[in-house]
Amino acid sequence: MTRAAQRIHDAGKRAIIANIVPRVTGDYWTAEMELQPNKVNNWISSQTVFDSVIYFASVLADPANPDKIRADYASDRTHPTMAGALAMGNSIDLSAFDAPVRPGTDR
Predict the structure, then answer these.
(1) Span 53-83, pLDDT tens digits
(2) What confidence tier does 3 reach under pLDDT thresholds 50, 70, 90?
(3) Counting Cβ atoms within 10 Å, is residue 34 exposed (0-12), middle (13-18) or buried (19+)?
């Protein structure tokens, strides 16, 4: 991901990343498998390579169980429903595309 961000910056653009959204555990997706996206999300939250982070996980998360997608936003245990996709779209702060570089980066 670091290389991708650098290529975006080399093209004179701001690099923006989104975190991995929660999903519903079940027959295939186990709690153990959930550890990997959590590691990636922790890196995304603490990295300084990208200029902004869009936190879709907090938009789709079940308030009672943040590691799971809200039932009304889960179409197939993994992907959001149209309502979930709309909520994700509406959550994007478009000023992030024009904002100054995030402190701590070298751009």
Answers:
(1) 999 999 999 999 888 889 999 888 788 999 9
(2) very high
(3) middle
